[in-house]
Specification:
The chain is of the alpha/beta class. Helices cover 26% and strands 22% of the residues. The chain has nine helices and 14 strands. Strands 5, 6, 7, 8, 9, 12, 13 and 14 form an eight-stranded mixed sheet that branches. A two-stranded antiparallel sheet has the order 1-2. The structure holds zinc ion. Zinc ion binds next to loops.
């Protein structure tokens, strides 16, 4: 539903509509108010989440207040619980794809020098190719790169570039749609319908498998695999609960140069209270296909 609306909207109109929606958020939050679902990004308790695609409308993943998806909510929990992003020390963060609901959160973090970049998004502060960045090496302390690499023809080069522009001791959080087999890609497939059929979306050039960890390690990173479920820390959160079902996507925290336990990640879970939270249904496999 949100996906179809966005795809019919001209690019120049989207930033204005997003600003209008955000201005209306107090009203939206009041209309949707309930204790059944919780969004940690905008800290709203809402009645239900919205479907992303009408063709898959049983899969309700979008927060009606801030438009975050499951992956955004998981990433935000991870950043808050397990990184040094909020310790107020001076840091430079590079954000690829500049998801609007996270941009406004990043901008409010004390001590953070924030830069968003994208190939052509009207929301980004800079336009740049992730496989050939104009930054010198050792430019950033942290990188957030979510659902970008599955669009990039040479994802290995993109990983190497992220490693190059990170300072020693820096870290990146990477998210991609992941299947439970090995990465499937074929550069000769350029037809959008074939990409949709094989890779899950008409502008995807591959579907990553669990071997994405090896690709990131080849670029030089020390990599962890974090299940969204691991971010919900209360004893009331069981694997069979709706909370757990909504947290099965994966995150890949990547540290530069140093062993992972010496990097900035806190391996222990934080204290987020998920007892009232439901992050919405999501899937371990690629998201539903639709062009
Ligand atoms: Zn939200």
């Amino acid at each position: 539903m949100i996906y179809e609306l966005k795809n019919t909207m001209p690019d120049w109109l989207e930033p204005s509509l997003v600003r209008l929606w955000y201005a209306l958020r107090p009203l939206v939050r009041r209309i949707f108010r309930s204790d059944s679902h919780f969004c940690p990004v905008c800290e709203s308790r809402v009645w239900f989440f919205l479907p992303h695609k009408w063709s898959n409308r049983h899969l309700r993943v979008v927060c009606p207040v801030c438009f975050s998806h499951t992956r955004h909510r998981q990433a935000w929990l991870f950043l808050k619980q397990r990184t040094d992003l909020f310790d107020a020390s001076p840091k430079q963060l590079l954000h690829f794809a500049s998801e609007t609901m996270l941009v406004e959160k990043f901008r409010t973090i004390t001590g953070l020098d924030y830069l968003s970049t994208d190939l052509d998004s009207p929301h980004a502060m800079a336009h740049m190719d992730i496989t050939s960045m104009d930054f010198p090496e050792d430019s950033f302390d942290a990188i957030y790169c979510s659902h970008v690499l599955e669009h990039v023809p040479d994802d290995r080069k993109a990983m190497s570039e992220m490693f190059r522009v990170l300072r020693p001791g820096g870290w990146a959080v990477v998210q991609v749609p992941v299947s439970d087999s090995t990465t499937h890609e074929d550069p000769s497939i350029t037809d959008p319908r074939e990409r949709l059929r094989l890779f899950g979306q008409c502008d995807h050039v591959r579907v990553h498998g669990l071997d994405i960890v090896e690709r990131l390690e080849t670029a030089g990173f020390a990599v962890q695999t974090v299940k969204g479920f691991d971010l919900a820390s209360t004893s009331r959160t069981k694997k069979s609960s709706p909370v757990a079902r909504g947290l099965q996507q994966l995150l890949y925290p990547c540290a530069r140069n140093e062993p992972i336990n010496n990097a900035s990640f806190n391996v222990a879970s934080g204290g987020f209270d998920a007892s009232h939270a439901c992050y919405g249904e999501s899937r371990f496999m690629v998201e539903s296909p639709s062009c």
